[in-house]
Prior knowledge:
Layout: H1 2-12, H2 39-46, E1 57-58, H3 59-70, H4 74-84, E2 95-96, H5 128-135, E3 142-144, H6 145-162, H7 170-187, E4 194-196, H8 197-206, H9 224-238, H10 255-259
Antiparallel strand pairs: 1-2, 3-4
Helix pairs in contact: 3-4, 6-7, 6-9, 7-9
Bound molecules: protoporphyrin IX containing FE and magnesium ion.
Amino acid sequence: NVLLLAATTSLASGRPQYGTPNPHEWIPGGPHDFRGPCPMLNTLTNHGFLPRDGRNFTKANVIKGLGDGLNFDTTLAGIMWDQAIIANPEPNATFFTLEQLNVHNVLEHDASLSRTDAAFGNNHVFNQTVFNTSKAWWTDEVVTAKQLAHSKIFRQLVSRAENENYTFSASTEEFSLGEVAAPIIAFGDTTAGTVPRELMVYFFENERLPEELGWSKKNASITLQTILETTAIVRNATSLLTGGETAPADPHKRRDLHSG
Ligand code: HEM
Ligand code: MG
């Protein structure tokens, strides 16, 4: 009974829509589907906001997927696609695939938070062992930009020390800062530069939008300006110098400054 089946499936996903299958049901990729090194593109693909087979990521598909899935502004999503199309080596390519993102040192880079370096193995499948070492730095329920920065710096330190082929250029740094800011942008507070730990961990570990934890896509559309501001918070937080903090690490430590 097809109708009953559809009803049961949607009930199981927590959204009863009798007779109307949810087009954004979470379905992880099968053996013939491509997935890549980006936890968010994989997530949006698993929800059918992007082509479920991981192929044919045209500009129109990416703009629609990031818009419908996360409320990214059209201009922003277009800029991101423009930066990613180099993944397809064909001249004047009109699409990329998730598999094309796996090529090391094109867009994929060392010291990822949730993947191992290409020199050590699979550079695109989620790696729980690696991720646990990143997660360990996210010590508060509401993770701060500083804690995110710690995980970024830690992963770079380990890679630089252990990977003879460790590569991290100035442009890698720019992408990496954007990636570290990304969970704040999708799930957190872009003004405070914070993100609920539970939402971020669930997203990385399941490649699924954390809807069952109460998250829903932001009402305000996310623009290039949002990204630049949030990335700036993360960039400041990655500085190992003291004195440039945007906020005191611990207000108690500063009380003596004022109480004289
Ligand atoms: C990582 C591509 C959009 C979140 C990556 C990586 C690629 C990539 C190639 C791998 C870099 C590495 O080696 O770690 C893209 C493209 C996008 C896109 C082409 C859109 C056109 C997004 C969005 C978000 C996001 C919208 C979330 C708001 C992340 C995160 C990582 C990442 C958190 C870091 C993963 C880690 O360090 O393990 N992305 N991405 N991405 N991306 Fe995306
Ligand atoms: Mg990587």
